[in-house]
Amino acid sequence: MIAKIGALAIALLLAVTAGARASDWTVLPAESKVEFAGMQMGVPTGGEFTAFASTISFDRGNLLDSSVRVVIDLDSIATPLPLIAQILTQEPWFDVANHPQGIFETREFIQLSYMQFEVRGLLTLRGVTQPVSFSFEFTTFGDDPERDGWLKAILLGEATVQRTAFGIGQGEWGATNIVADDVTVTVRLAAEKQTGP
Amino acid sequence: MTVTPIRRSYGTVAKSFHWLMFFIVGGMFPLGYVMSDMAISPQKLQLYSWHKSFGMVLLMLAVLRLAWRLLRPPPPLTSGISPVERATAHGVHGLLYACLFALPISGWLMSSASGLPVVAFGLWQMPDPIVANEPDRLLLLTIHTSLGFSLLALLTAHVMATIYHHLHRRDDTLRRMLPFSAQKEGK
């Protein structure tokens, strides 16, 4: 009985999150970026995740049925000083061995202006899920001049998350006077969608 | 007509620069050695922050000290030394000054090449002269470390020479830089 309910719950969850809608936008990885920036001892310290996959169903005329799911391969972390990326994959930080993926998903879009939106979604890191709001802006949204029958969109999004809310920085790293709690996540997504034949 | 007496001692400002930098430089060696050897920890980041912050203080002091030296030339070297000794003393002093500039600058550039800008005392961010890249970082690490050992060698020579002058030659080489030693007018 419990197993059946569990299976049903998982099936429902899958339907609600990933399975509900097929991706109708194709992300262009070469033009997309997921970056982060924090502070240690007042020193800006940042990097990026070079591997991530996105499932985007977005219709600006039908925000209620729009959804975005981004799965980040946390092992793809890269920092200007490679040693820092290596440290961040370890247990006190992202603990990539046990939590290889970071997931952001949302179905809640709020239009602020013609090109500006806010998304409220759930970010899962290191086994912890927390609500996170991104504000984003389309810098491009229209017919792709290089590809007939395709729509191209480029968005820039930014969110501030508290690393300790996800347990990123365990033990002695939990103190926020050395490594600040706030981390800014900056996303640039370029995607295309077929509109005509 | 008045005769300007020959100053035999360094002035208060020059002495202050010398002894302030003496203590900071003296602290930078163990700090740099310990911090680079440590495993990653919050303490390590704290020590790096101090090392870089005091490095910027030293750079600032070096600029001010050199400017002051140009405005107020130091007293002539003690009399009765050979031309070789004179040249050696001036050479070592010149190299010491070069190190006092080159060490903080190479450290600053190394930070920049690491993608970790210098933020003095967590407050004042220095500009980044170069884009972060690993080959430059490794080159600058070698330069910074080599300069550190060079400065250590020069300081050893500097201190040995002072001891030699004070104890063997019994001249005023050390006394004229000591704090509170009265400025004695010339002969």
Keywords:
heterodimer, A: 197 residues, Lipocalin, 2 helices, 11 strands, B: mainly alpha, 4 helices
Strand order of the largest sheet of chain B: 1-2
Through-space gap between termini of chain A: 49 Å
Termini separation of chain B comes to 18 Å
Counted up, domains of chain B total: 1
Under CATH at level 1, the class of chain A stands as: Mainly Beta
Mean pLDDT score of chain A: 90
The averaged pLDDT of chain B comes out at 92
Proportion of β residues of chain B? under 5%
Largest interface: A-B, 16 and 21 residues
For the secondary structure, the number of strands of chain B is 2
Main sheet record of chain B: 2 strands, antiparallel
Structure overview:
The complex is a heterodimer of chains A (197) and B (187). Chain A has 197 residues and is mainly β. Chain A has a single domain (23-194), classed as Lipid/polyisoprenoid-binding, YceI-like (Lipocalin, Beta Barrel). Chain A has two helices and eleven strands. Chain A has helices at residues 2-19, 82-88; strands spanning 26-27, 33-40, 43-49, 52-57, 67-73, 77-78, 101-111, 116-125, 128-143, 150-162, 182-194. In chain A, strands 1, 2, 3, 4, 5, 6, 7, 8, 9, 10 and 11 form an eleven-stranded antiparallel β-sheet that branches. In chain A, strand 7 and strand 8 form a beta hairpin. Chain A is elongated, with a radius of gyration of 18 Å. Chain B is mainly alpha-helical and 187 residues long. Chain B has one domain (12-76, 85-169). Helices cover 66% and strands 2% of the residues of chain B. Chain B contains four helices and two strands, in the order αααββα. Chain B has helices spanning 12-37, 42-71, 83-113, 134-169; strands at 119-120, 124-125. In chain B, strands 1-2 form a two-stranded antiparallel ribbon. In chain B, a hairpin with a 3-residue loop joins strand 1 (119-120) and strand 2 (124-125). In chain B, helix 1 packs antiparallel against helix 2. The two termini of chain B are 18 Å apart. Classes of the chains: A mainly beta (197), B mainly alpha (187). The interface between A and B is medium-sized, with 16 and 21 residues.
